[in-house]
Amino acid sequence: MRIGYFDCFSGASGDMILGSLIDAGLSARRLREELKKIRIPTIQLKVKKVLKRGISATQVIVEGKKERRSHRNLKEIMRIVERSGVKAEVKERSREIFKRIALVESKIHQTPMEEIHFHELGGLDSIVDIVGSVWGLQQLGIEKIHVSKVNVGAGFVKCEHGILPVPAPATLALMEGKPIYSSGVERELLTPTGAAILTTLGSEFGPIPSIHVERIGYGAGRDHLLHPNLLRLIIGTSASTSGNEKVVIIQTNIDDMNPQFYDYIMEKLLAMNVLEVFLTPILMKKNRPGTLLTVIGPSEKRPAITEFLLKETTTLGLRWHEEERAKTEREIQTKETRYGKIRFKLARWEGRVVNISPEYEDCKRLALKKGVPLKDIFEEAKRLTTRFQKTRRI
């Protein structure tokens, strides 16, 4: 499994996250091309190499023409994201991040979520930071994100609401349950956007995990401080991904929803990167036929999954509990067959391959392309798997 570890010794912001991704190998040209799909012609991405206390880093600055409007509400931001041309999964994760920011802001300022406004170039730079970060992490093949203890800074910060303590109330609310500290630097080191991205996408917070380092990237902050004002991103493969992990299991019984909706519900849930979604036919009271909808996902996603199910299905309530599951170490290998290239998913337990299976989508694509039965493609993949197992080449 490929892991990204954000080392936040000088906090984090949206542009620092983008800078660390580019410094670690993400193409700035491709990022700009992807961001054009958001259709914001007034926004430009400025990327340059800088030195921060003798360390080379990439600095990203989101620039835009001044508009008559200084802010946009959540509904307008969501509309911009939804109408963009980025992939559905990127849209879904980006909307999740914006919702988390709006939710904590609404609680702090006692304002409905829909009325929360995003400032800073009308919230357009936040869209670039968030959508760009979600897309960039996917492009670098990062499957799991770990985050260090976060240096939040100290002192006070001037914002739209006046003078606020550091960390700002919204930032602190977003970091609830996560480890933070202050080195005493009187500056806002962790921004709400940075906190929202890290806590929404991050699954583990604490010391660096055991990984084989492949790439390192440094994203530069704008301020010049006595320490290196950088966000460090370490990318590598985990030494072992097999073992136990905690998951949340969420279930609800439904007997009054159009069955055609389940396809949509499952597609949206899978776009949220849950682990499993499945349906079970059941009999409810008065022998009414119903459906048990079960979702298994990372524990930190429980609030987002709960909100989605309550809004998108006809359920009036749901139940959940946490469990531990044993999982194998997963790896994808691509092999050449007489029909073309097929990806194989390998499962290892304690270093030994215990299962190998061809990717269905690859087999389907080749069957359509070559005009041969799908079962023939699978038989070829099966023969290849058996041969590799015997020669120990997998």
List low-pLDDT spans.
none
Number of E-type strands:
20
**Radius of gyration from the CA trace?**
23 Å
Number of domains: 3
Strand order, biggest sheet? Answer: 11-6-1-13-12
Characterization of this structure:
With 394 residues, this protein is α+β, with helices and mostly antiparallel strands. The chain folds into 3 domains: 2-238, no CATH class; 243-327, Alpha-Beta Plaits (2-Layer Sandwich), CATH 3.30.70.1380; 329-391, Ubiquitin-like (UB roll) (Roll), CATH 3.10.20.300. 34% of the residues lie in helices and 34% in strands. The strands form 7 sheets. Strands 11-6-1-13-12 form a 5-stranded mixed sheet. A 4-stranded antiparallel sheet has the order 15-16-14-17, covered by helices on one side. A hairpin with a 2-residue loop joins strand 18 (329-337) and strand 19 (340-349). The longest helix is centred in the N-terminal third of the chain and has 22 residues, at 88-109.
SSE layout and pairing:
Layout: E1 2-7, H1 14-23, H2 28-35, E2 43-52, E3 55-64, E4 72-73, H3 74-83, H4 88-109, E5 117-118, H5 124-139, E6 144-147, E7 150-151, E8 156-159, E9 162-165, H6 169-174, E10 180-181, H7 192-201, E11 204-205, E12 211-220, E13 230-238, E14 243-254, H8 261-271, E15 276-283, E16 289-298, H9 302-312, E17 319-327, E18 329-337, E19 340-349, E20 352-358, H10 360-370, H11 374-391
Parallel strand pairs: 1-6, 6-11, 7-10
Antiparallel strand pairs: 1-13, 2-3, 4-5, 8-9, 12-13, 14-16, 14-17, 15-16, 18-19, 19-20
Would you summarize the structure shown here?
The chain has 394 residues and is of the alpha+beta class. It has helices at 14-23, 28-35, 74-83, 88-109, 124-139, 169-174, 192-201, 261-271, 302-312, 360-370, 374-391; strands at residues 2-7, 43-52, 55-64, 72-73, 117-118, 144-147, 150-151, 156-159, 162-165, 180-181, 204-205, 211-220, 230-238, 243-254, 276-283, 289-298, 319-327, 329-337, 340-349, 352-358. Helix 4 (88-109) packs across helix 7 (192-201) and helix 10 (360-370) crosses helix 11 (374-391).
